[in-house]
Design a protein that fits this description.
Number of domains of chain B: 4
Distance between the termini of chain B: 38 Å
CATH topology of the largest domain in chain B: Dimethylsulfoxide Reductase, domain 2
Largest interface: A-B, 98 and 79 residues
Strand content of chain B: 15-25%
Oligomer: heterodimer
Radius of gyration of chain A: 17 Å
Order of helices and strands of chain A: HHHHHHEHHH
Number of strands of chain B: 30
Strand order of the largest sheet of chain B: 6-5-20-19-18-7
Largest sheet of chain A: none
CATH superfamily of the largest domain in chain B: Dimethylsulfoxide Reductase, domain 2
Shape of chain A: globular
């Protein structure tokens, strides 16, 4: 089952500044929504302390603080026992919500669907493809259209890591906020387990905090 | 949380996140992608083909931006651009998926979960290991007779990537499988007509249209719609009939249409429309025969020379055997067609050169063997069979029968036969279980293992099926009585489906494998099933989406796992097979047609064969008429059998030795009509190929009413139920209920409701027997019964329903996964 699968991509060829919290946060959300969790992922998530420890630095402010909250919410939404059964249920939930398998309504993970496009690989995907190209990047083909939520979030992480111009970051953030709140609403409406609604809600809160944090 | 180590700080966590398997969309440099994918270069146009016609796809940056008809086909149907919708449908199957319960418990899983159970994504390797081990397990435990791989459906327009051929080839490699006989379109006709005229007749060339235009004075369309159904073709359509129709309209040839509704063809040609009650065609034909005989308008010489058994039939016709002369007045009571119209049309047909063009709807009904047999009998009495423009034809409405044939060669496909000498290919079979079943008895077979049924003089013992493998078809849609089918689908231990989309059929599977669309692979096709106007290269336009693979690749991989990959592929890859298929045809054609070699053809994209002189002047049965001794039909007598000793010996009460009126189980004249007073007919759709394209935007804009399948109702019936155009209604009977959107039109007769087949089944509760179908697949309502013991064909058009306005807010349609926002 999913635990034996390869991750979405084995290689990340990007010059991410690993210490950048915002970049991490975007990549973290992209990872959670880009595909099903595997056993190792859950172990890591489960290992996140809910409250800051005595050795942790003081809680940062702005987007990073929001991410700190988000982590707590996401961890709290994990199943009580993280065993094969729970992983299977989460994988099935992922397929149900985002892969169009199982019972409708699914939650399209593509920006295009929220702009009224009825096809994959339409205008939104083409715009994202151009944008990625502008940054010298391309998404792996098996990920599907470039307007997938994970691709958009990953690019935002790259911009953060590269400390791209604020205007570029604001533009992409605005793009994300254009559709992800509705996506989150749909996740909430269609989900059967608390995990993905928690991730989606945390993402929306984080996006809004990051918007406030980005200089004009 | 039971796994939380205490010594990890949040700071540590954030530092490690990126390095672990939790990765998002891992990007690669753009240059690398461009270098790796030859198909993602700048804008270009690709010529390809489909069941809707030749087309050109514009591809830019690796994506199809536009699909347009090929300039050589001015008659491409309006649904053709929907192919781009199809490729990029949000309902694509993206990755190999396994039902969660099946992944956990394998063949011991709760099969009642099918249709609503969760799926999880697995790797291709895991999925194919699972499929291979299930095949091995079922074969070892139960023998090959437990493996059903009929996998009925349409073939790909291309010859190579033909899903069910590849499936059958693969299964022959492991020693065999239970397959199917016949089809859902013409099952009754294709069993009865070999008895009557010695061949299938439904899938054969017709008297060429130029001959018809020149000689015919009266065309009788019997349940046939030339405009609606010739848009598609079993291969790639030539759309020839759309050249003919304006000429036919201008020609002065009289056209009479006998049909429960006024078709697009009737409207276009302004044909005389004779409204007939569904399922009563035989009564009207008998009455015409009665008029011909009693008024001595029949051709006794033709009957004596070219047919056998008229005397036995005549006794029945005149009522000598059953006390009921088959008069027009008698037929009027049954059919609702005024007696004087029946009589007059019979006289007119006898006095003019008449071509009867029959559709297939009249044999998709209870006792569906009788209408085609009686139609041949009627044509025999007219005595024009084998004359230019006279007689009958069963395929003028399908794949443009009558389009003049070329002398181009036949383009073959990968053979479905395969012999594997190793132990993998050994055949194990249990008892006298059938090797093939009449296809529309599938649910019956699954529900009743060991049951014996009659079929065309034989006994068929239903096998005990444990594994169902479907590649290229949508049975949870085209099979009758879907609630019964769902019950039947609980029976097998394992169901595997190859699919491009999350069709209703895919949702009922245990293992779903994502398959490429035809634009994601290379193939080769011929143009015009009957005309064979040329071959076209179907070039790959884009790289496969997500993790889709071709059926060929999947079966090659499975064959490798089972130890016969080389036998399966014969060492050929995709392009090697295309070259082989093309060159084989070229070699066969060497004496008749000049063809470029494969490389030149592939570069040009198309090779065309002109219509031959013989093709343009072809007259069916002309040779037989000219010399029946030297050119006998393949019937036992060598002649047209109006009475069949063979069939009479079978002793079937539901299919006696000559054409007969046999009251259907369900029809407007029967007892059930008191409770369900509307006859439901479900013809082929105008804007789809069966269920193909139902998940495209054109359907939503043109072919749905209130987002659902349209139901045509006569103003009188609508008024009686307080219905207005656009209302959502419940269509129901004792077998199920479906929603539909009302279209009020006098094109449909009172007492008749018309819903096109092929709408995706969309249950309110997936997998639940009896669930409301939110979108309106008519097979939710149709009866699952064999036409008779002879053909055991489907009886869709013998269905009664009632219609009521839906009260409240109707549930949203969700068949396509991604509902409209």
């Amino acid at each position: 089952m999913s635990a034996t699968m390869e991750p979405v991509s084995a290689a990340i060829i990007v010059d991410v500044d690993e210490s950048d919290r915002r970049a991490h946060a975007y990549r973290f959300f992209a990872a959670l929504l880009g595909r099903e969790l595997v056993a190792g992922d859950v172990a890591i998530l489960a290992g996140v302390p809910v409250a800051p420890g005595p050795d942790d630095p003081p809680c940062p402010s702005g987007a990073a603080a929001e991410f700190s909250h988000a982590l707590g919410d996401i961890v709290a939404a994990l199943p009580d026992r993280v065993d094969g059964e729970a992983l299977g249920a989460l994988a099935a939930e992922y397929a149900h919500l985002f892969l169009g398998a199982g019972q409708a309504p699914a939650v399209p993970p593509y920006e295009s669907a929220y702009r009224g496009e009825t096809r994959l690989y339409g205008t939104a995907a083409a715009e994202m493809r151009s944008l990625l190209h502008r940054w010298g990047l391309a998404a792996p083909r098996d990920m599907g259209p470039e307007d997938h939520i994970a691709v958009e979030l990953t690019l935002m992480g790259v911009l953060a890591a590269r400390e791209a111009a604020s205007s570029d970051q604001r533009a992409l953030n605005a793009r994300l906020l254009n559709w992800i709140p509705e996506y989150a609403d749909r996740v909430k409406a269609s989900a059967r387990l608390p995990f993905y609604p928690a991730v989606a809600a945390a993402l929306v809160a984080f996006l809004r905090a990051d918007q406030a944090h980005l200089p004009n | 949380m039971d796994q939380r180590p205490d010594d990890v700080s949040r700071e540590d966590f954030l530092k490690t996140v990126g390095a672990l398997s939790l990765v998002g969309a891992g990007f690669v440099p753009a240059t690398q992608v461009v270098a790796n994918a030859a198909v993602s270069s700048g804008p270009r146009t690709i010529t390809s083909a489909s069941h809707f016609g030749l087309f050109q796809a514009t591809v830019a940056n690796g994506a199809i931006t536009h699909v347009a008809p090929h300039p050589s086909d001015p008659h491409a149907p309006e649904m053709l651009p929907g192919l781009a919708d199809l490729v990029y449908s949000p309902s694509r199957v993206k990755y190999p998926m396994v039902r969660r319960g099946f992944l956990k418990s394998g063949h011991l899983s709760d099969t009642a979960e099918r249709g609503h159970g969760d799926f999880v994504r697995v790797s291709w390797d895991e999925a194919l290991s699972l499929v291979a081990s299930e095949i091995k397990r079922v074969k070892k435990t139960y023998s090959n007779s437990a493996l059903y791989a009929g996998s009925y459906g349409w073939q790909s327009a291309g010859q190579m990537h033909n899903a069910f051929t590849l499936l059958h080839r693969f299964y022959n490699g492991i020693g065999g499988y239970v397959g199917d006989i016949g089809d859902y379109s013409t099952a009754a006709a294709q069993r009865i007509l070999p008895h009557a005229v010695g061949s299938l007749a439904v899938y054969e060339q017709q008297t060429a249209w130029p001959v018809v235009l020149k000689n015919t004075k009266l065309i009788v369309l019997w349940g046939a719609d030339l405009i609606q159904n010739n848009k598609i073709d079993w291969v790639v359509p030539d759309h020839y009939v759309y050249e003919v129709l304006p000429r036919l309209k201008a020609s002065g040839i009289r056209v009479v249409s006998i049909n429960p509704f006024r078709t697009d063809t009737d409207v276009y040609l302004n044909a005389e429309h004779i409204a007939i009650r569904p399922c009563t065609d035989v009564a009207v034909m008998l009455a015409m025969a009665h008029v011909l005989y009693t008024e001595k308008l029949h051709d006794q010489k033709f009957l004596d020379t070219y047919t056998v058994g008229f005397d036995k039939f005549k006794a029945y016709l005149l009522g000598e055997t059953d006390g009921q002369p088959k008069t027009p007045a008698w037929a009027e009571r049954i059919s609702g067609v005024p007696a004087h119209l029946i009589a007059q049309l019979a006289r007119d047909m006898a006095r003019s050169r008449t071509m009867i063009m029959a559709g297939w709807a009249t044999q998709r009904q209870d006792h569906g063997e009788q209408p085609p047999w009686m139609l041949v009998t009627l044509a025999s009495m007219l005595g024009q069979i084998g004359l230019p423009g006279g007689g009958f034809g069963f395929s003028y409405h399908s794949s443009c029968g009558g389009a003049p044939a070329s002398s181009g060669p036949v383009l073959g496909g990968i053979p479905n036969q395969l012999t594997v000498k190793s132990s993998a290919g050994k055949t194990l079979w249990r008892g006298n279980a059938a090797h093939a079943i009449p296809i529309s008895r599938m649910a019956d077979m699954l529900l009743n293992p060991g049951k014996t049924i009659d079929y065309d003089g034989h006994k068929i013992v239903f096998p005990d099926i444990k594994m169902l493998y479907w590649a290229g078809g949508n049975h949870v849609g085209h099979h009758q009585e879907l609630n019964r089918l769902i019950r039947a689908l609980h029976r097998p231990e394992t169901i595997v489906v190859h699919e491009v989309f999350w069709t209703p059929t895919a949702r009922f599977a245990d293992i779903v494998l994502p398959i490429t669309s035809s634009l994601e692979r290379n193939d080769i096709a011929s143009i015009g099933l009957f005309s064979n106007m040329g071959f076209v290269a179907m070039k790959q336009a884009i790289a496969p989406l997500f993790e889709a693979r071709s059926d060929f690749a999947v079966f090659s991989d499975l064959a490798r796992r089972l130890g016969f990959e080389h036998e399966f592929t014969e060492g050929r890859g995709e392009i090697d097979w295309l070259r082989y298929l093309y060159e084989t045809a070229r070699k066969a054609a060497r004496k008749q047609v000049e063809m470029p070699n494969f490389d030149t053809f592939w570069k040009r994209g198309i090779v065309q064969f002109p219509a031959s002189v013989q093709g343009a002047s072809y007259v069916t049965y002309a040779d037989f008429r000219a010399d029946p001794g030297s050119n006998p039909l393949s019937t036992p007598s060598g002649r047209i059998e109006i009475y069949s000793t063979t069939i009479a010996r079978f002793g079937y009460a539901d299919c006696p030795g000559h054409p007969s009126w046999i009251e259907p189980d369900e029809w407007l004249g029967g007892a059930a009509a008191h409770k369900y007073p509307l006859a439901l007919i479900s013809p082929h759709p105008k804007y789809r190929l069966h269920s193909q394209l139902d998940n495209t935007s054109l359907q939503m804009s043109k072919n749905k009413v209130a987002g659902r399948a349209p139901i045509w109702m006569n103003p009188k019936d609508a008024r009686a139920r307080g219905l207005a155009n656009g209302d959502v209604v419940r269509v129901f009977n004792g077998r199920g209920e479906a929603l539909a959107g009302v279209v009020i039109t006098d094109r449909v007769s009172p007492g008749v409701a018309r819903m096109e087949e092929g709408t995706w089944y969309d249950p309110l509760k997936g997998g639940v027997i009896g669930a409301l179908d939110k979108e309106g697949n008519p097979n939710t309502l149709c009866l699952d019964k064999g036409t008779s013991r002879l053909a055991q064909g489907p009886t869709v058009n013998s269905t009664l329903v009632e219609v009521r306005k839906y009260v409240g807010v109707p549930p949203a349609v969700t068949a396509y996964s991604a509902p409209t926002m």
